[in-house]
Amino acid sequence: MPGRHDDGSTDEREYGFPVPMWRALARHSPPGTGAARRGWRSPLRGPWLTSVYGGILLATLPLVILTGLLDYLAYGPQFNQAFPRDVGWLRLPQVDWPTRPSWLFRVTQGLHVTLGIMLVPVVLAKLWSVIPKLFVWPPARSVAQVLERLSLLLLVGGILFEIATGLLNIQYAYLFGFDFYTAHYFGAWVFTGALVAHVALKLPRMVSALRAGPPADETPSGPTATRPEPPDPDGLVAPQPAAGTVSRRGAVTLVGGGALLLGALTVGQTLDGPLRRTALLLPRGQDPGDGPNGFPVNRTAAAAGISAEDTGPDWRLTLRNGGREITVDRPGLLAMTQHSARLPIACVEGWSTQQYWTGVRLRDLAGLVGAVDPVTAQIRSLERSGLFNQVTLQANQVFDADSLLALRVNGAELSADHGYPARIIVPALPGVHCTKWVATIEFRTDG
Ligand SMILES: Nc1nc2c(c(=O)[nH]1)N[C@H]1C(S)=C(S)[C@@H](COP(=O)(O)O)O[C@H]1N2
Ligand SMILES: [Mo]
């Protein structure tokens, strides 16, 4: 039977659960939770500190989410070539990815990876600041609280999952037994949903905590004078705080400095020139060699199983348009009007570079085989297997004046690793779709 209190309320109303079971649960806290909770004694914890980290994440995470979704769109989901292929009702509006500005994908992808890495210390600091809540017992007092804690599980689990899979992917470490793109995409939606709920719930408290400011008068007297924030309803402030070892400002500076340091060690991979050597945290970061072909290689010719014979004098480019088929050899391509453009290669793993490419315009090749009004172009590589041995291009990507079947780079022949005898280069196209060792181009009018 529900107990009745002096104020007329019942336990049922207080708990929102069948009471005897709940009482028993509350009485029998798992061994150690109380001690663990009291063990978190830093005087730094409190609503203000949590709100500072929360505010930084609130201002920056939407950019990481947005650039991530844009990257997904850039892959051309309308051609079923984005990953994951089937996203059910999580389908984004299908738009043609533009070719201008040519650095668009370089920026969206670079921001996604660099900012994502920089936010790692902030996320960890935010989690550290709320860690006593993990040991609250009973874990929830009402159905609403159960739901809130479930959403926190998705929020925390979601972001840690996105960080882990993202970091492993840019290190080319496919340790997990599932597809990275699928996992990272669905994880992003889980996390984003939980984030929206969390912000809706906590925004007012964040704003008021920031307004209230940190406890006054700590800084002039140094870290040992660090004062706890006043006790809060959320239980972030330690009931028996230990003496301070670092000032509140020092803690925030440390986390911010960590973020900037990570950014500094990452951003080089999206820059050309000697600064690339500063990308110490990334495998494609440091030393791509010298000369006209001295820029990062994603997959070498050897790794792709491309032999010297495949790309020798017998190589032909096959152009198709409906029933028509034309083959051209390399001297034939070199005899056509050559066009040059300075265009980036931006890889989904976060590195990018800009080079000076020369070759035949894709629209001239369309004209050669009489494709006046193609809707798509389907490109296939000599490479027999692998995820990236073909791509479908949109009409605007075929007809951009700088879209090339590149034969040369920086005034020299393409190297075998960069796609000799011919490769695709299209403004703002993700690197993964700049197919190397091209064998056939098929123009289609039916999409
Ligand atoms: N045939 C083929 N083309 C390919 C790839 C591949 O694996 N096979 N990798 C792509 C990827 S992921 C990138 S980022 C670019 C890198 O081009 P680069 O190695 O010349 O720098 O090539 C693309 N073209
Ligand atoms: Mo790539």
Q: What would you note in describing this structure?
A:
There is one protein chain. Helix content is 38%, strand content 13%. The chain is an alpha+beta fold. The chain folds into two domains: 250 residues, no CATH class; 144 residues, Sulfite Oxidase, Chain A, domain 2, CATH 3.90.420. The strands form two sheets. Strands 2-1-10-5-6 form a five-stranded mixed β-sheet. Strands 3, 4, 7, 8 and 9 form a five-stranded antiparallel β-sheet that branches. A hairpin with a 5-residue loop joins strand 3 and strand 4. The N and C termini lie far apart (69 Å). Bound molecules: the ligand Nc1nc2c(c(=O)[nH]1)N[C@H]1C(S)=C(S)[C@@H](COP(=O)(O)O)O[C@H]1N2 and molybdenum atom.
Summary?
With 447 residues, the chain is of the alpha+beta class.
Please outline the helices and strands:
Elements: H1 11-15, H2 19-27, H3 33-39, H4 47-74, H5 104-118, H6 120-129, H7 143-170, H8 180-212, H9 248-266, E1 317-321, E2 324-328, H10 330-335, E3 339-346, E4 352-361, H11 362-368, E5 376-381, E6 390-394, H12 395-399, E7 404-409, E8 412-413, E9 423-425, E10 438-444
Bound molecules: ligand MTE and molybdenum atom.
